[in-house]
Amino acid sequence: MQLFVNLAVKDLDRSKEFFTALGFAFFGMADDMASVMINDGAQVMLLTEPVFAGYAARELADPAKTTEAILVIGLENPAQVDELTEKAVAAGATPLGPPRQDDFRYQRAFADLDGHHWEALCLAQPAG
Fold this sequence. Notes:
Blueprint: E1 3-9, H1 12-21, E2 25-27, E3 33-39, E4 42-48, H2 49-55, E5 70-74, H3 78-90, E6 94-95, E7 100-101, E8 105-111, E9 117-123
Parallel strand pairs: 1-4, 5-9
Antiparallel strand pairs: 2-3, 3-4, 6-8, 7-8, 8-9
């Protein structure tokens, strides 16, 4: 089973540059869509707004004003959380709040170039 998350983007080339800067590879690129490979079981499909609207049954949300979803990438350790978030910010993302840490998790959030909310998360392994 695989998961495909579809996101509307204003400028596909700019979004491809952003996700490339984060270290992700692509699969199945076309003039109006590109698939970001998160891992073997998950892909984020970047669709230009007109193409996305053609699939959507309702009006497109403006991710700069509303939260349509929170996209979370699970990582193995806090250093990877920091690395991914710092790459995102260096590539133009906006940090969203301070890092969050407790006994069970370490996570940081950012908004991508189109305003979509992303989280980089490391869950603590249960003791014993």
